[in-house]
Design a protein that fits this description.
This protein is mostly helical. It has one domain. The protein is about 60% helix and about 5% strand. The protein has ten helices and two strands, in the order ααααααααααββ. A two-stranded antiparallel ribbon has the order 1-2. The longest helix has about 35 residues.
Length: about 270
C-alpha cells in the first residue's frame, strides 16, 4: 500500500517539486517541437523517442493541474473556511502566482514592442485594455488574444482557486458548528469528481463560458477530494500515483489539452 507523502520540515513536498520541474521541462520540449525549432534533432531521433520526449509533452499540463488540486486541498485541510479565511487563502495563492507572471508579462510586452519597432508595425502591440485584462487574468473572458500563448493555463488555474474556495465555503458554512468535517468535504469533492467525468468521457464538450475550467476539473478536482479526504482515506495514494492516474485519465479518455495556434485557444480533443 502506498502512502501520502508528508511535507518535510520547511513545508515542501519534495517529490511534487521535482515533478513540477519535470512537467515544466516536458512542456518546454513539446513547444520546441510544435514551434519547429529543432527539426534536425527530431530527424535524428527514432519515432518512439520523439513521441515520448516531445509529442506527449502536453501531458505536463494535467500533471500541473493534479499537483495544484492536491496541494490546495492539503493546504486547506485544517482551515475552516469563512469569508476572511477564504480571502486570505486566495491572496496567498495569488501572491505566489502573480509576481513571476507579471515579470513574464512585462518581458513579453517588451519583446513585442521591439518586434513592432523592427518590422515597423504597431498593430501587433496589445491594447491597454488587453494588458489590464491580462493583469487580472480575464483576457479569455473578454476574448483578447493572449500576449503569450502559454498564459491560457493561468485563467484555468484562477478559476480552480475561486471554485475550490467557494465549494469549501459552502460546505463549512452550512454546518451548525464552526468545525471542519473532512468526511463531508471528501463526499462533495468525490461527487464533483464523478460529475467532471462527463467531459473526458465526451458526454459534454462545452465549457459553458469562455475558457471555462469545467472540462479540466477532472484533473484538479479529483485530487482536491483526495487531499481533503486524507485522514479518512481507507488507502492512501502517493503523489506519483495521482500523477500517473492523471496521465492515464487523459490517454484512456482519448482527450488531451492541445493549444490551437490558429485561434489562440486550447482545445479538449484527441491529440496526435
Amino acid at each position: 500500500m502506498t502512502t501520502i507523502q508528508q511535507p518535510v520540515a520547511n513545508g515542501r513536498f519534495l517529490f511534487a517539486d521535482g515533478l513540477r520541474g519535470l512537467a515544466a521541462l516536458w512542456v518546454v520540449l513539446f513547444h520546441m517541437e510544435e514551434g519547429k525549432h529543432i527539426p534536425f534533432i527530431l530527424q535524428a531521433l527514432p519515432d518512439w523517442l520523439d513521441r515520448v520526449l516531445f509529442s506527449y509533452g502536453h501531458l505536463g499540463v494535467p500533471i500541473f493541474l493534479v499537483l495544484s488540486g492536491y496541494v490546495m486541498a492539503w493546504t486547506a485541510r485544517k482551515t475552516y473556511m469563512h469569508y476572511k479565511s477564504a480571502a486570505l487563502f486566495l491572496m496567498r495563492r495569488l501572491s505566489r502566482l502573480s509576481p513571476p507572471y507579471y515579470f513574464s508579462l512585462m518581458f513579453a510586452i517588451l519583446f513585442l514592442a521591439l518586434k513592432a519597432f523592427q518590422i515597423k508595425n504597431t498593430g501587433i502591440l496589445p491594447s491597454i485594455s488587453s494588458i489590464v485584462a491580462h493583469m487580472f487574468y480575464v483576457e479569455a473572458l473578454f476574448d483578447f488574444k493572449y500576449i503569450n500563448s502559454v498564459y491560457w493555463t493561468l485563467w484555468i488555474e484562477i478559476q480552480f482557486y475561486l471554485f475550490f474556495v467557494v465549494v469549501l465555503l459552502l460546505i463549512d458554512c452550512v454546518q451548525t458548528r464552526k468545525t471542519i468535517f473532512p468526511d463531508k468535504r471528501y463526499d462533495v469533492f468525490f461527487a464533483l469528481g464523478i460529475v467532471s467525468l462527463l467531459w473526458p468521457a465526451h458526454v459534454l464538450t462545452h465549457a459553458f463560458w469562455p475558457m471555462g475550467f469545467a472540462q479540466f476539473w477532472f484533473q484538479c478536482g479529483r485530487n482536491g477530494f483526495m487531499g481533503n479526504g486524507i485522514p479518512q482515506s481507507p488507502a492512501g495514494l502517493s503523489i506519483p500515483g495521482l500523477s500517473g492516474l492523471s496521465i492515464a485519465d487523459r490517454m484512456l479518455a482519448s482527450g488531451s489539452v492541445c493549444y490551437d495556434h490558429r485561434d489562440h485557444r486550447p482545445s479538449f480533443v484527441c491529440c496526435r
